Amino acid sequence: MVQKQEYLSKNQKIVLDHVEKANQPLKAYSILYNVQKKGLKAPLQVYRALDKLVEIGKIHKIESRNAFVACKNSNCIVSNATAFSICESCEKVTEINNSKLSKYLSNFEDNSGMKYSKYNLEFFGLCKKCKNK
Amino acid sequence: MVQKQEYLSKNQKIVLDHVEKANQPLKAYSILYNVQKKGLKAPLQVYRALDKLVEIGKIHKIESRNAFVACKNSNCIVSNATAFSICESCEKVTEINNSKLSKYLSNFEDNSGMKYSKYNLEFFGLCKKCKNK
DNA sequence: AACGCATTGTTATATTATAACATTATTATT
DNA sequence: AATAATAATGTTATAATATAACAATGCGTT
Fold first, then answer.
1. Residues B85, A126: C-beta atoms closer than 8 Å
2. What is the mean pLDDT of residues B16-22?
3. Cβ neighbours of residue B83 under 8 Å, at least 6 residues apart?
4. Smallest Cα–Cα separation from B115: which of A128, A133, A61, A82?
5. Of A64, A115, A127, the CB nearest to B120
6. N or C: which end of chain A has fewer CB within 10 A?
7. Which residues form the domain of A61?
8. A27 touches strand C (CB under 7 A)
């Protein structure tokens, strides 16, 4: 039996390194532009690395922004329960790590008979800095 | 002082009608294709109508799917607090109307000093039908 | 060695969304 | 009624985001 991948491939490492250094969400084509010196030439090389990194939870996609950010949540081994705050003025994005919230959402049930295995929550507002401007 | 718009324009009505009849999320270009007989010829005409309809809460965007669905929530006058369940198998999307959930999220505060004015929550899983297949 | 599978490399193309500019419609104010 | 402010329309072109398809390589398992 083939084991689940435990390491990152060359391209995956390059992309993850770059996204981790950014400390903010990056667009796929901005990543591409910046890793071209490392040999990644085509969008697909970046998208494929991102897909994998999202799948294993090292990177999250900010859906409302089509941007990618490194996971800041050490216990976020698989990317199945994510929450972010997004400042609508400066676009600063912060991953929310709140156990009450994640517990509440993971256990949430409505009357649809559907059991949820994942969620993504994006809060919008003004961050502290922008509020005081 | 100019009042807030109370009616829908021609294009907005056409797009909203179409999306309401669908009962499921539609892609912008699928909308475009289907309203061409009504005179909307270009993507921008659809996107502009969608933008407005999203702004006033008649339509919501399912961010993870880049698709648009009519609001099923009569008290959702402004589109600032939305929650959906998404079946990862059949792609059925349902708007969640749960006052406990919305109260919980609207009052949510973390330690960032940020007060949130909007949120969008997308749950993923298997719907009843697909679970039993 | 042979197999299975993930990854890579590459070219082309599909899909989603906006820029820019000119024009017309609607409503509020004078 | 005339004017001004705002919103909506129409149009062409293009930007930004993402995937299809195919050939080749690398790596662990049998």
1. no
2. 98
3. B95, B96, B98, B101, B102, B105, B120, B121, B122, B123
4. A128
5. A64
6. N
7. 10-108+117-131
8. no
pLDDT of residue B1: 27
**What DSSP string runs through B94-117?**
EE---HHHHHHHHT---TT--EEE
Residue B4 lies in a domain: no
Per residue in B102-119, pLDDT (tens digit) is 999 999 998 887 888 899
Run of H or E residues at A67: strand A67-70
Domain count, chain B: 1
Interchain CB distance below 8 Å, B123 and A125: no
Which chain B residues are closer than 8 Å to A120 by Cβ?
64, 121-122, 124
Check residue A3 and give its pLDDT. 36
Q: Which two tokens stand for residue A35?
A: 């890793």
**B90 part of a folded domain:** yes
Nucleotide nearest to A27 (CA to C1'): D17
Which helix or strand (DSSP H or E) is residue A69 part of?
A: strand A67-70
B2: in domain: no
Inter-chain residue contact B116 with A125, CB threshold 8 Å: yes
- Select the residue of B63, B116, B128 nearest A63 (Cβ to Cβ): B63
Domain membership flag for residue A1:
no
Q: What are the tens digits of pLDDT across the range A63-96? A: 999 999 999 886 555 568 999 999 999 999 999 9
CATH code at B32?
1.10.10.10
pLDDT at A13: 97
- In sequence order, the 6+-apart residues with CB closer than 8 A to the CB of B94 are A112, A114, B84, B85
Spanning CA of B57 to C1' of C26, the rounded length in angstroms is 22
Q: What is the rounded average pLDDT of the residues B9-22?
A: 98
